């Protein structure tokens, strides 16, 4: 056995452990959570509303708006629209708030200039 194998308790922290313990990484995680948790909750509530209306308000969901287009069909299509909107908002948020901090952390770990 090598000395390093025998003395695992005194090994220096790996780079990823140092990064994980850094205040910059904690801030990155906080920024991610600030966006992801509320938006996920809102989307899940929106989807739950759609499912509950489809199950318990069939008269409302089958109301024709024009031609054969019903409220339920519009709500279903809006599920797709809301998914694309959320994706666009996340990309914009990540580009502005997450990526600059992630790049800073990456450059500190790699020891490269920005």
From TrEMBL:
Q: What is this protein called?
A: Clumping factor B
The organism of origin for this protein: Amycolatopsis keratiniphila subsp. keratiniphila
Bilayer-spanning residue ranges = 34-53, 65-91
Protein origin, superkingdom: Bacteria
Write the record's keywords in alphabetical order, separated by commas: Membrane, Transmembrane, Transmembrane helix
The record's annotation in Pfam families points to: DUF485 (PF04341)
UniProt keyword annotation of Cell membrane present: no
